[in-house]
């Protein structure tokens, strides 16, 4: 066997080019075949390296980092099935436009198809969920091959961000010896490698994102004609924190100029913060369940931003009112599952809002718009009082947890919201005004996997003085116990709030759940196959990974636990124990209270 350090230099050149191209964080899952890449990453001063033994956890950790920063995180793993564990995170990245660079170490071509251990066909591993795929090949001393190493790295970082952000896959093959070796003399390729390292990776400049002039003209004309406009904001597809802040300001300006009513869910990035003179409707899901509101608040134009809203009552309203012009706006994709949009505008919502504000300069608000928006503001006041009254009159429940989180977290906190009931309860029960709160989510595929690991990733790139919290259900937490190991090394405040409500209570919202009365044969089968309560102690899970633990059974307990979490550097699991039936009863009572309040007021 020829002794050479080409593998080490090849990996060093590749990893340096990743850093030159803008990667700042790299997540390694240990393995033998990835040895050259892991050692190169550890030696690269411009990278922060994170080590996670579980590739599935590593994938969601990287996803959480990139969602919090807007920059791609790189992942490295060994050969075989290791990279397949990234697929769920890659799917989410693809659906929500989060950049990731996925690097699988592989065995050389001669190891394929001959029962060589830990060898699978890794080409096209991420399939349709990859924005781009590259084969790095085995190290080769040819000058053209060495130059290509840096080019492929820069190209893949670029392709993870433009034109459509998402995961890219690089397959890197290595033959043994994988570790650095002693050589007798300088190798012929060394001067070129040193020159390439000194030169750095190719800089890539992409076109500035823009907005179609035709789209601006069309929407400005529609807004001038409109008298009752809604701006509806679903989960955001914007992940750069500065762009999020400027987008919120631009959308607020657009609402002020047009008199539009703002309906923004918590995951939109527009829900929390000062509203000024804009009429905001945080309780729009509950209000749209009330027939009086659906009729009297009916718009003549809808501008929908981001992914489709989570609200089921908004979805049913859209299906029932296909005649109302609805324009959907997102930086990429086709966010119109109902197939009723008048137009799809591919643009950053904030950029479009700014362009529309300029185009509508001097637009006067008509009396009809002012009267209509004042009526909706009154409806929101009534709904907020009804929801708060129901919440405070009820037993401690999932809704109480959501309300307490939103009421207690400081303005500079980051809240990672889980799917299923947590995302819905934050929207339903946070009816009050509060300061800015950054909300991160995984609403692309709307899955429950990787929520703790994603929050740990967000924690790792958030300033240490800021509290990061993740709010999720017990089954979501069980699904990501490995994420607790990722949280273990956070070294900064991280509150993992687990609602212990005895299983998947969201299924109770389905028609089958409404039919499955407790104690009946159907009810027993429903609990066995759907709600699936798990008798697991999160106290023991927290102790296994060296995390702090608190059990809370009231809003006061939860507020105190969140306050204490900010003062310690060790992550804490806060298990909020509620009665399994309490949340369903509260939602039923709350929605009925809103419906009755609107019917009584608007009938009068």
Q: Could you describe the 3D structure shown?
A:
With 604 residues, the protein is of the alpha/beta class. It has three domains: 194 residues, Thiamin diphosphate (ThDP)-binding fold, Pyr/PP domains (Rossmann fold, 3-Layer(aba) Sandwich); 171 residues, TPP-binding domain (Rossmann fold); 183 residues, Rossmann fold (3-Layer(aba) Sandwich). The chain is 44% helix and 15% strand. It is built from 23 helices and 17 strands. The strands form three sheets. A six-stranded parallel sheet has the order 2-1-3-4-6-5, with helices on both faces. A six-stranded parallel sheet has the order 13-12-14-15-17-16, sandwiched between helices. α3 packs parallel to α4, α14 crosses α15 and α14 crosses α22. It is globular. The mean pLDDT is 93.
What's the arrangement of secondary structure elements?
Elements: H1 6-20, E1 25-28, H2 35-43, E2 48-51, H3 55-69, E3 73-77, H4 87-96, E4 100-106, E5 130-137, H5 143-159, E6 167-173, H6 190-199, H7 213-225, E7 229-233, H8 241-258, E8 261-264, H9 284-287, H10 291-296, E9 301-305, H11 312-320, E10 326-330, E11 343-346, H12 349-359, H13 367-393, H14 398-408, E12 414-417, H15 421-429, E13 438-441, H16 451-460, E14 468-473, H17 474-479, H18 481-488, E15 494-500, H19 511-515, H20 521-531, H21 538-544, E16 548-552, H22 555-565, E17 572-577, H23 582-603
Parallel strand pairs: 1-2, 1-3, 3-4, 4-6, 5-6, 7-8, 7-9, 9-10, 10-11, 12-13, 12-14, 14-15, 15-17, 16-17
Helix pairs in contact: 1-2, 1-5, 1-6, 3-4, 3-16, 7-12, 8-12, 13-23, 14-15, 14-22, 16-18
